[in-house]
Amino acid sequence: MANRNVAANSPLERASLASLDQRLAVAKRCSHEGVMAGAKAAVVATIATAIPTFASVRMLPWAKANLNHTAQALIISTVAGAAYFIVADKTVLATARKNSFNRPSNA
């Protein structure tokens, strides 16, 4: 039992725990950047989709007859959701790739 406590406090294990904490912090920052970029893209996509959708419903007879409020909301929210997930995924992958190449040396 005593050997197990000594091994838990060894410098090698403390270094690996510090490395694990550092990697966790980098992962949190990476995911936060992805969320923020995705949210910005979703806002832009919402505005870019809402304007033509609402304009077409007012001006085009087919759209006026066939696109009720639910359909309009579905069109806009689908585009916003897709923009969010695409941009967030690309941002997380790009940040992770950048961080994997820029690892600090342990020497």
From TrEMBL:
Transmembrane segments: 37-57, 69-88
Superkingdom of this protein's organism: Eukaryota
Keywords for the protein's UniProt record, in alphabetical order: Membrane, Transmembrane, Transmembrane helix
Pfam families: ENOD93
Protein name: Early nodulin-93-like
